[in-house]
Amino acid sequence: MSTELDLHQPNPSGYLDNLDSKMQYCKLIAESDIVPPAFRGRPANVMIAIETAGQLGDAPFTVMQEMAIISGKPSLSAKYIRSLVRRAGHRLRETYRDGVATCVIVRADDPEFEHVATWDEKKAKQHDLWGKGHWRKNPELMLKNRALTECAREACFEAMAGIGYTPDEIQDFAKPEPATPRVTVQQVDFSRLRDAMTAANVDASTMAAIASDVLGRHIDSGAELSQADADAVAESLEEDLRRAKEDHPAGTGIDPETGEVAETIEEQK
Predict the structure, then answer these.
(1) How many Å is the Cα radius of gyration of the chain?
(2) Alpha carbon 263 to chain centroid distance?
(3) How far, in Å, CA of 48 to CA of 43, rounded?
(4) What is the SS3 assignment for 263?
(5) CA distances from 15 to 22, 42, 49, 53, 54 (A)
(6) Which among 80, 77, 83, 117 is positioned nearest to 100, based on CA atoms?
(7) Which pTM does this prediction carry?
(8) pLDDT computed for residue 44 by the predictor
(9) DSSP string of 120-174?
């Protein structure tokens, strides 16, 4: 039996050769509810996964299952990185003794040299990782994964299509996304303004003209008014109405066409 490894050669062109076909395929996959959230409704992300799958010589769905996107950076699961290293024909050995995780990779094209990476509690503490999150729950696994990815990046980065970090690593050094400021939409109470408009016999267009004069800026509609604006316009209408009643006790109103104080019909009679 031959001892030579049958290396899986990647297909750089991806699964589909026609760009339009790829786009339609990505849209179709993105509509599925069984793909991970990072790809659901995001055909562009699906396209990246397909291209990555082409480089790795793997199925797009497999890549999507093993890929996580954090802060815009893609990452691969540790178990998938292990399979990629072996699939590329390199020898991978992992050990864990006395709290020290060691990973050794011997490249297929350089069998005389060993790439070695080790991780222990001291190193994890130097990186401010020890005792946090998964490090507290399963420190052995986390040490082994860090030794693996560090060694793989040094020994055979090309085997991972340029994605040499796990989701945990990305989370450790990715800058937290700035919090989106909460925008509070102020609910404007127009009741006072409406009452003033009714009392003064003013329609919406006349109110907009009066508001423009009162506020010193062009106003097209009440939708542009803040609570303070609405109260200021209402106060102006109320003041005009008071003055008009003092000058014309029989009754007055605001001419809706001119915005000027006008006598009521009863007074004119």
Answers:
(1) 35
(2) 61
(3) 9
(4) strand
(5) 8, 18, 11, 8, 6
(6) 117
(7) 0.59
(8) 92
(9) -HHHHHHTT-TTSTHHHH-HHHHHHHHHHHHHHHHHHGGGGTT----HHHHHHHS
By the 8 A CB rule, do 202 and 210 touch? yes
Across 88-92, 164-168, 237-241, 260-264, least confident range: 260-264
Q: What is the pLDDT of residues 8-62, one digit of tens each?
A: 444 444 445 677 888 888 999 999 999 999 999 999 999 999 999 999 999 999 9
**Please, are residues 230 and 193 in contact by the beta-carbon 8 Å criterion?**
yes
Cβ 255 vs Cβ 262: under 8 Å:
yes
Question: What φ, ψ does residue 266 adopt, rounded to 5°?
Answer: -60, -40
* Tokens coding 90: 């390199």
Q: How confident is the model at residue 166, as a pLDDT? A: 93
Per the CB < 8 A criterion, the answer to whether 196 and 211 are in contact is no
Q: Locate tokens 């007074």: which residue?
A: 267
Encoding tokens for residue 32? Answer: 């599925």
Q: Output the pLDDT for position 260.
A: 57
Axis crossing angle, helix 204-215 with helix 227-247, rounded to the nearest 10: 100
Smallest Cα–Cα separation from 162: which of 42, 54, 15? 54
Helix/strand/coil for 72: coil
Smallest Cα–Cα separation from 69: which of 180, 179, 181, 174?
A: 174
What pLDDT is stored for residue 171 in this prediction?
A: 85
- Residue identified by tokens 């030579």 is 4
Number of H helices, E strands in the chain: 12, 7
